[in-house]
Amino acid sequence: MSQPIPLLIPDIPNQAAIQPYLLQIDANRHYSNFGPLVKSLETRLTASFQQHAANPIHVTTVSSATLGLELTLSALNLPKGSRILVPALTFVATLTAIIRTGHIPVISDIDEDSWLLTPEIAQTVLKEKKIQAAIAVATFGHPQDTLSWSKFQKASGVKVIIDAASAFGSQWATATDIPIVFSMHATKSLTAGEGGFVVSGNAKLNNLIRQLSNFGINLDTHSGHPIGYISHIGTNAKLSEYHAAVAHASLDTWEYVAKKRTEMFHQYQHKLKELCGNAVILQSGQPTSAPTTLSIRVGSSQVRNAIEAICAQRNIATRRWYQPLLHHHSARIKPMEVFSCTFAERIATDMLGLPFSTFLGDEDLNRIATAVKDGLETQF
Ligand SMILES: Cc1ncc(COP(=O)(O)O)c(C=O)c1O
After folding, report:
1. Pick from 252, 286, 304: which residue ends a domain?
2. What is the distance in A from the centroid of ligand 1 to the CA of 150?
């Protein structure tokens, strides 16, 4: 049997790269609760987002993007049972965050080429259904257009959040009135092992998210509430100093890792094109700065099944990323409303995730592209 090709291999800073930050923790004796490494990480991230925004940017770290989404939804203070638009093709955390904060997900379609929920699609839904908020996902790291979403938000009164879990380096907060949530999970290009952060131009919102991440305890002397009392129901979603140490080390080499990821993506694209021609379709739109996954469309469910079977035989891992679509999980997942999802359903029939990591060699790419080609040829 040939060597296995795993779906993903995380590219995380090694012990030597993390060591200087661990020594700082030892010296500081501060391990969590908004310590010096968390603060300096937020400062570094703010500086990078500030380069792409005209208004002041605020960054608040959290223990995961999932909790970042939940706390951002809570901080928006929407009436309980608000209807929140969410694309059918996304990770389940986008959905669970809505239900766990007491709201009703309204599952929507995506654009056939970019695979994104767009303001135009949200506008179509609004003509037939009342919604109070929308979570636009930067699917597979492809950025959302914050300026268009900001226009939509202003015109409709619908609050917009961007779930940019895997889009660090591609998704910027150009329009600062749209909060954006990022993940620093082990599989992401900027990683803390586990972690996340929320970026927005709204200091009040970010302060509230920070308070909610610390059980809801008020630490703000200007808030009008007594210090140490809870004034909101929060949770524990603080990023520890140890996770911040990994994130700092990851940020130190981010440009280098992003370049490696981009080069790998281009090599992959060329190899697929060389062996499969135009039979393989990739997500359209702006290329991502640091891809972490690679999904293709192959024309039909039969061809996808054939490619999956061939890959399994040849020890090549594959995954139908973000499937089943949100509304095809269990009937127990309630409440939920579903709008027309024509393109999402179509994409879900023939989309397949191939192995992607910075550790793939030429021979691996050749084996994967050959398996895809052989699968495509079963249709003739
Ligand atoms: C679109 C999307 N949202 C949310 C998450 C959850 O991120 P985390 O693992 O940091 O909670 C992910 C994870 O991959 C994701 O892809």
Report:
1. 252
2. 23
Listing DSSP states for 239-303 in one string gives PPHHHHHHHHHHHHTHHHHHHHHHHHHHHHHHHHHHHHGGGSB---SSPPSS---EEEE-SSHHH
Instruction: Answer whether 183 contacts ligand 1 (Cβ < 6 A).
Output: yes
- By C-alpha distance, which of 267, 90, 242 is closest to 167? 90
* Cα 50 to middle of ligand 1, angstroms: 23
| CATH number, domain with residue 31 | 3.40.640.10
- Ligand 1 pocket, 93 CB below 6 A? yes
Q: DSSP state, 65?
A: H
Q: Is residue 2 part of a domain?
A: no
Same domain, 142 and 178: yes
CA of 27 to the centre of ligand 1 (A): 33
Residue type, 10: P
Q: At what angle do helices 36-50 and 15-28 cross, to 10 degrees?
A: 120
Which contiguous run of DSSP H or E holds residue 368?
A: helix 362-377
- For the chain (380 residues), the mean pLDDT of every run of 10, in chain order, is 94 97 98 98 98 97 98 98 98 98 98 98 97 98 98 98 97 98 97 98 97 95 90 96 98 96 96 97 90 97 98 98 97 93 98 97 98 94
Ligand 1 centroid to Cα of residue 190, in Å, is: 13
- With a 6 A CB cut-off, is 72 part of the ligand 1 pocket? no
Say if CB 136 and CB 149 are below 8 A apart: yes
Q: Which CATH number characterizes residue 300's domain? A: 3.90.1150.10
Judge if the beta carbon of residue 137 lies within 6 A of ligand 1: yes
Q: 157 and 217 in one domain?
A: yes
- The two structure tokens encoding residue 229: 């009392």
70 lines ligand 1 (CB under 6 A): no
Q: What is the DSSP letter of 316?
A: B
Total domains present in the chain: 2
Position 149 scores a pLDDT of 98
Determine contact, residues 208/230, Cβ cutoff 8 Å.
no
57 is a domain residue: yes
Distance 93 CA to ligand 1 centre (A): 6
What DSSP character marks residue 90? S
Residue 66 CB–ligand 1 contact under 6 Å: yes
Q: Residue 217 sits in which domain range?
A: 15-252
